[in-house]
Design goal:
The protein is mainly alpha-helical and 319 residues long. The protein has two domains: 111 residues, no CATH class; 185 residues, Orthogonal Bundle (hpI Integrase, Chain A). Helices cover 49% and strands 8% of the residues. The protein is built from 13 helices and five strands.
Length: 319
């Protein structure tokens, strides 16, 4: 979404968010969340219930009164594009987690400006179920079976490799998107990833962990790297991202829309959506093959939290 399409107050918020991201040197997930909230506020500003003055005046936007209207609209699921379509009758309420992301972004902007206002955080969602060993073994068997088409096979292989890397490293989404092929040992025996400790002081130093990969993950990565090499053939610029797209897509809207070839690095939301779609498909297919199948949770975070132990072979401070 270009700045020209935003309401003036939201455009001001967007400019402040970009300044905040630069000054913080924000990690990818925080930057993505801040930018997502700007788009979400714009979606709310398109609705009749949104205060007219808050569309044009940033001072009117960044108030508890406007926040109350915005959080009601977002909480009811009305800022999601698919729920604003006139033919879509079902409205899915926002999760506590997404509402916390919204409030965190508003508070970050207020703090950056030195405003005394504080926007209330929603309660934390209760922890979700993790993946049991039996489910992981069943998933391994299913992902190892051939798929029906080359595209679905490529998706299976990418999911299989990502699944193995998460189990071996306990990687978060933000750590996955930062992985490059240079992080892999030539024989795929290890992978290095940058950890940014959370909640430890003001600016915890990043740490590089080099972690042993299982035989299963090495095999999955070999298959994925072959497919990845085909996808990045026509990509311009750097080609070192480990996780890349399988289909052509686009960014932006209208005259600002840019077509993007397959092989482009996956960003956090794209990676999480791709993983969630693949697991959702498994949950639809698996009951016919595994009589005791329990649907797998669909997020990277839930799989990550199921990992009890990883094998770190080297630990360094990031340069």
């Amino acid at each position: 979404m270009s700045e020209q399409t935003l309401h003036p107050a939201v455009a001001r918020m967007s400019m402040l968010v970009e300044t905040l991201i630069r000054q913080e040197q924000a990690e990818k997930k925080r930057a993505a969340n801040l930018r997502w909230v700007v788009k979400d506020v714009q979606a709310a500003a398109e609705l009749d219930e949104f205060p007219e003055k808050a569309r044009t005046s940033f001072d009117d936007l960044l108030t508890l009164s406007t926040w109350g209207v915005y959080s009601d609209l977002a909480g009811a699921g009305l800022t999601r594009e698919r729920h604003r379509h006139p033919d879509h009758e079902v409205q899915v309420p926002a999760s506590n987690s997404s509402m916390r992301t919204r409030a965190t972004a508003w508070n970050a902007v207020a703090k950056f400006l030195g405003r005394p206002v504080r926007f209330p955080l929603a309660p934390k969602d209760p922890p979700k179920a993790t993946v049991a060993d039996r489910q992981r073994r069943a998933l391994t068997r299913e992902l190892s079976r051939p798929a029906h088409t080359p595209m679905s096979e490529a998706g299976r292989v990418r999911t299989l490799a990502m699944y193995g890397v998460i189990l071996d490293t306990r990687a978060r989404s933000g750590e996955l998107v930062e992985m490059t092929t240079h992080a892999l040992a030539p024989d795929l025996s290890t992978i290095s990833l940058i950890r940014r400790p959370q909640g430890v002081g003001e600016a915890p130093l990043p740490i590089v962990e080099t972690i042993r990969l299982s035989q299963f993950t090495r095999a999955a990565l070999r298959a994925w790297l072959d497919i990845r090499a085909e996808r990045i053939e026509f990509v311009e610029g750097t080609k070192d991202a480990l996780w890349v797209s399988l289909r052509n897509n686009h960014s932006g809207q209208g005259h600002g829309m840019r077509r993007r070839p397959s092989g482009m690095p996956l960003q956090i939301r794209g990676l999480e959506r791709a993983y969630s779609r693949a697991i959702s498909q498994l949950n639809r297919d698996m009951p016919e093959k595994e009589s005791a199948w329990t649907p797998l949770p669909r997020t990277v975070e839930q799989l990550r939290r199921s990992v009890k132990k990883i094998e770190i072979v080297r630990l360094d401070l990031a340069a």
